[in-house]
Amino acid sequence: MSREPVRPMPRGRLILAILGALVLAVLIVLGAILPVEFNRDPLGVGKLSGLSRLWAPDETVVDPASEGAARAREYDLPFRTDVVEIPLGDFLAGADQSELEYKVRMQKDATLIYSWEVVGTAEPRDFRYDQHGHTTPAPGQPMTVATYKQAFGLRQQGALTAPFDGIQGWQFSNSSERPVVVRLRLSGFYALIPAGQPGNEAGIRANVPAAEARPATTSP
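Below the sequence we write its predicted structure tokens.
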């Protein structure tokens, strides 16, 4: 039995078939593969069909009000950034020149990002710091105090969330044979303390060179 020869598809129909296959392939990629594999949904089909959920990992919902959970906070104080250069004399200059306290005023639950380093000595044992905070009560009222770290070292960086309304910062002490400068960088929600008030009895000025921050002390 003889077979009839297969007629080739007309050129026009062949082109339409190829174009249709290409369009279908593009739709599959845009509507299914991208939402499932790459979380991209240019046509919106993944969202409507639920395919985009196949890409997402399992979720664990955390109640922000629960104990120990990270909380998003808003503050009344504006965000600010300051650089404070604190000159300290050598140990022969006496305690009034070789050590001081520098703090900032913070409200309860406000956050401070800090970083400081000592310029002028390479020996960590020459420099001691006491990071702490306390309230500023009226005369006759009790004071709340929190000590965070007491150590020797030439640098520190981190974040602090104030446990109460009050002042937070450091006591810096230089016991080396040379004057040094503490370069302190602060960012967050706090207020600088005016010269002469508790936390800044030395009258340190922020955002000026060390020689201007405390003119009576010579910087290295």
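The mean pLDDT is 83.
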